[in-house]
Amino acid sequence: MLKRYALMKQNLSGLLQIGILEGYLMPETYFAIPGMDEEQIIEMMSNEFDKKITPDMHGKAKEMKVEFKDIVIMASIIEKEAIKPEEKPIISTVFKKA
Question: CA 19 to CA 56: how far, in whole Å?
Answer without folding.
Answer: 25
